[in-house]
Structures are given as structure tokens and as C-alpha cells.
Amino acid sequence: MKARQSLLILTLAACAGITLAETAVRNEPIQPLAPYVPADAAATAKAALGEKLYFDPRLSKSGAISCNTCHNLSMGGTDNLTSSIGDHWQRGPINAPTVLNSGMNLAQFWDGRAKDLQEQAGGPIANPKEMAFSHELAVRVLDSIPQYRDAFKGVYGKDTIDIQMVTDAIAAFEKTLVTPDSRFDLWLKGDDTALNDQELKGYQLFKGSGCVACHNGTAVGGNSFQKMGVVEAYKTDSPELGLEGVTKDEADRFKFKVPTLRNVELTYPYFHDGAAKTLEDAVAIMGRIQLGRQFTPDETADIVAFLKTLTGTQPDLKLPILPPSNNDTPRPEPFNAADSEPRPQNG
Fold it and tell me: Which residues of the chain have pLDDT under 70?
């Protein structure tokens, strides 16, 4: 009966020239995700420049690591590793969160130490365990390439490049990486056929158990910091303190930014330490330590089924062709740990 009623509503809406997106949205603690729409041609040009920078490994000391290395857009915006591999195979300190929909986060990084995407973009470039470069050297590399100089001048109207332009452009590209039109979004917009009975049951359990207290809003998370281990202490070998590392307030110990659950089936392993290898593990652990609830295998399966409906349309990108280095561009030294900066080559 509900399916027939929904079909009738959609048919009437179509006859009136109204799209599904324009019909009433269900009153739920999660809201549908809208597609990215550039403000103007200037925004499009800035994002296009940022896209090249996002994929350019020359912003790293080794010349082998780009933003996409740890936030792979072919893999849900992450690398599916417990912690990322940095310069000279160093192990990163924490699990890489997805870049997809990251512009909706209240802050960046698990501990929120970057206030926005632009501030975040500069961190890995200069981190000795990640890209292991410096902002000065990154700018020098870009400034040595005529096509980059022209692109920066076209976007920013200046003859010189600085790190603020670099991070601003990368952030502009990252803001385009939204994933609308998940099956759950379609259901939120009134399509009763978008979810099956198990998925609906899983959502009701997710909502009724209290998961939506933290995982709500358009991003299904990302809008608060919460203590990990409310009912039961979370045991981990990770030394990360969470928000306390930023505020220096002991009350913030083990508070982490709540991750978005959009595309969560793609962004394994889970938690800041990457300890939960599967969605089933993550649901069971969070139920126990956050809610004081032991989900049965069937309940876990229902919630996991719902979570998989949050996978949206992935960014449809054509791999950018990067401008070539020239004779004056500093060359990387990937196999020499003692060298602190790349050497120019002539020829």
C-alpha cells in the first residue's frame, strides 16, 4: 500500500513538472546530501587547479606521495590501511579519514587541530612522517613550472605563488568531493522502494539504539567531538589522545571527531586506530562501549545493511595530466634519507 501511495505521489509530481528532489523530505535526524554546484567560473577554475595539486606527488620530498596516496578517490577517499605509509615507509600515527564530504566536518583531522580544509591541506606536506617536504620547497617546485605559474596567476591574479594559494586551491577541489544520491538519500526524499525490509529495520535499530545522537545531519557525523568509550573503556595501543592534544584539557582525553558514515562500507578499517577491520566489528564494538548494548548477530547484520545504503555517487573524475617539470625544477631524492631537500638538475 505504501509503495502504491509513493508511486502515486511521484507520478503526480512528475506530471506537475516536479522532480524527486523537490518533493517533501522525510523528517529524520539525517538529511539528504545535495550535489556540489560551483558558484561561478572562477570557482571551477580554482577547483581544477586544486585537482592537479591533489594528484601531484612533486609536493612530497620523495616525489612519490600525493594527497591521493592516502585519500585515494578510487577507494572511498582513503587508503584502506590501518595507518598510512609515509616518507621512507614510515608508519603514519593514525588512520586516514575519508576526504569525501570532508568539507562538512566541523574541523579537520581526528583531533580537530585544523579548523578547515585549507589549514588541513598544509599539514601533510610538511609532516616528516607523511610527505616530508616543506612549504617553501613545495612552492619552489610549483613556481619553477611555467604552466603552474600561469594557472595560479589565472586564478589568483598574482605573479608569485605562496603556500596559502596552494592550500586554498586544494581545499577548493576537496569541497567538490561530495557523494549525493545514495539509496538512503532517495528514501529520505520519498522513494519507498529505495530500501528493502532489512535495511529499513537496520535504520530503525540504528536510530532507536541511540547511534543518531552522534551520527546525524547531512554527513551522518562529522559535526561533534565525542569521547570514545562512554560505557566501557576502549582498549588500544594507539598513543593518540584526541582533542586533549589540541586543548590540553584532560576532560577532552579520548574525544575524537565523530566520523561521517557516508560511504562507510568503502572506508575500512575503522576508528582512529584502524582496529575494527569490518563494519560488523565496528558496529559491535560501538554498541558495547558507547551504548552499553550487545547487538545480536542478526541486529548487527541489519545495521550493517542500513549503513551500506549510505554509499553515494562517487566523484567521476578524469585523471588530470600534470604539467611537466623543466630543467630548473628541483628533483626529488626518494632513496636518500639524509638529504633534507631536492637538488636542482640541469638536463
Answer: 1-23, 337-347
Q: Could you list the residue range(s) of the whole structural domain that residue 248 is in?
A: 183-310
The amino acid that residue 131 corresponds to is M
Query: Which positions are annotated as active-site residues?
Result: 130
Domain count, the chain: 2
Residues 71 and 141 occupy one common structural domain: yes
Query: pLDDT tens digit string along 318-338?
Result: 999 999 999 999 999 888 755
Alpha-carbon distance values, 306 to 3, 47, 156, 198, 217 (Å): 19, 33, 44, 8, 16
**Contact assessment for residue 212 and residue 65, using Cβ atoms and an 8 Å cutoff:** no
Q: Nearest-CA neighbor of 252 among 228, 271, 231?
A: 228
> What is the separation of C-alpha 98 from the centre of its chain, rounded to a whole number of angstroms?
3
Q: How far apart are the C-alpha atoms of 216 and 16, rounded to whole Å?
A: 32
- The mean pLDDT value of the chain amounts to 92
**Rounded to whole angstroms, how far apart are CA atoms 130 and 70?**
9
